[in-house]
Amino acid sequence: MGITNNCAKFLKHVGSQAVDFSTTLMLGRQQLYISPKTLANLFDKATCDKVASSRYAEPFFEALGAKRVDSLDYSDYEEATLIYDLNKPLPADLRSRYSVVFDGGTLEHVFNFPVAVKNCMELLRVGGHFVSITPCNNQCGHGLYQFSPELFYSVFSQKHGFTVMLMYLAVETTPDEREWYEVANPQVVKSRVVFKNANPTYLMVVARKEFEFIGELNAYQSDYQEIWATNKEPQTPAGVLVRLYKILIPGFIRAWIYRLRHSNKEITTKNIGKVNAQHFKRVTID
Fold it and tell me: Is CATH 3.40.50.300 correct for 2-209?
């Protein structure tokens, strides 16, 4: 695991968004893979020299304002500060310690994801931020999992004491370049937020802890929740018409009507295919 040029740009961008790195925990002791050119665009010369002199990322986070940088890992092979298995619930003495928990590529390797992500939530103090960079598409085999935007919107939700502050897709166009897209919340747009592409794609997430959540995480995909809720409500005239439409109109005609209705919302992009323009908005990360 390590911080690349694009990860460094994202973290510097996050630092400008009122994220407090003062007490930072890295999941895994992150190594540095940042070019001198990228460093020079991010920091002054003295800071660049200090960061470049280290194999590991502690000086990089110090450049972002960290006063304390810890690392957590299953093994001590990279001399992490904390040795702990994220598959197991967090002990009480580790809770509410940090202003930032940074996952630079760990959770996709942990089998018991619900426990591991809840541990990340509990490691944070109220007002702190979970910051994640994780594979999203076209890297099958890299880890145990690839994650969708809806998973993080559902887990880091108000009911669990969190707010997602920003979520980007970072599409790798070359080893050193990425395109960035802001990702809509499926619960807000009332639709699945989907894309199909052939490039390695990362999900970049920042979520703020609003309050301490007590209990088990519980998340369901938003469009199914809508269906379940609709079926439990009394039938309305509009609902009856929709049901008749689905019964009487053949599927291929309904599909044609759907495409016709939504074609004006779609754009064709080079690197994430044909997508709803309201779901993915191109952004620039300085």
Answer: no
**Cα 286 to Cα 102, 129, 208, distances in angstroms:** 20, 21, 22
Average pLDDT of the residues in 10-20: 91
Query: Closest Cα to residue 167, out of 157, 175, 177, 159?
Result: 157
Q: For residues 167 and 137, is the Cβ–Cβ distance under 8 A? A: no
The whole-angstrom separation of Cα 254 and Cα 267 is: 21
- Residues 99/24, Cβ–Cβ less than 8 Å: yes
Q: Where exactly are the structural domains of the chain?
A: 2-209
CA distance linking residue 245 with residue 251, whole number of Å: 10
d(CA 148, CA 138): 12
Return the residue matching tokens 């050193």.
Answer: 176
Cα gap 2→4, rounded to integer Å = 6
The residue-averaged pLDDT of 91-110 equals 96
Q: What is the pLDDT of residues 128-177, one digit of tens each?
A: 999 999 999 999 999 999 999 999 999 999 999 999 999 999 998 887 78
Tell me the two tokens of residue 279: 């779901």
Residue 52 φ then ψ, to 5°? -65, -20
Q: CA 200, CA 29: separation in Å to the nearest integer?
A: 23
User: Between residues 263 and 77, which one has the greater pLDDT?
Assistant: 77
State the pairing for strand pair 124-137/82-83.
unpaired
What is the reported pTM?
A: 0.88
Q: Which residues contact 258 (CB under 8 A, 6 or more apart)?
A: none
Q: Which two tokens stand for residue 105?
A: 């590529």
Angstrom distance (rounded) from CA 173 to CA 267: 19
Structure tokens at 65: 């304002």
Is residue 71 within a helix (H) or strand (E), and if so which, with residue range?
A: strand 68-73
